[in-house]
Amino acid sequence: MQIFQVRTRQEIAFVYEPIAPLPPFVWADEKRLRQVLLNLLSNAIKFTEQGCVTFRVQPADDGQPPQSKLRFEISDTGRGIAAAQLETIFLPFNRQGKIATRRRERGWG
User: Fold this and answer.
1) Which residue of 48, 49, 83, 104 is most buried, as measured by CB atoms within 10 A?
2) Beta carbons within 8 Å of 18's beta carbon, 6+ residues apart
3) Which residues in the chain land under pLDDT 70?
4) Single pTM value for the model
5) Residue 30 — φ and ψ, nearest 5°?
6) 2-79 has which fold?
7) In terms of DSSP H, where are the helices of 24-97?
8) pLDDT at residue 3 in the model
9) Contact indicator for 52, 17 with CB cutoff of 8 Å
10) Closest by CA position to 50, among listed 17, 8, 3, 15
C-alpha cells in the first residue's frame, strides 16, 4: 500500500482498512486481482482532488475457510461518474479516437 501513499498528493489521505486477521492466502488469479485493484486505486487517486481514498478488505460472507470470500472495497471523495455514464461502465471496453482508427486500418480490431 506504500505505492499509493507516495502517489497521493498532500490534499489526499490514503486509508487502508484490512480485516484482522487477514487470511494466510487468497485463492485467486493473482495477476488479474492485482491488475483490477491497482487500476481502481489509481483511478480513485487520479480523480480525487481533495479528501481521501479508502481501501477496505472485509469478509463478504459468513462462510468458513476455504469457502469464505473477501470483499475489496475502494471509496473516494472524488467527483464520481456522471449519471449518463453509469449504464455503460460495465460494458466491454472500446477504444476511441486515433488508436481505434489505426487498429481498424491495420486489421487489428
Assistant:
1) 48
2) 56, 57
3) 1-10, 62-67, 94-109
4) 0.66
5) -55, -45
6) Heat Shock Protein 90 (3.30.565)
7) 30-46
8) 56
9) no
10) 8
3-state helix, strand and coil shares in percent for the chain, rounded to the nearest 5: 35, 20, 45
CB 46 within 8 A of CB 52: no
Q: Are 18 and 57 in contact (CB under 8 A)?
A: yes
**What is the domain partition of the chain in residue ranges?**
2-79
* Closest among 28, 48, 27 to 36, alpha carbons compared: 28
| Closest of 28, 16, 10, 34 to residue 73, by C-alpha | 16
- Residue that is written with C-alpha cell 481533495 in the block: 50
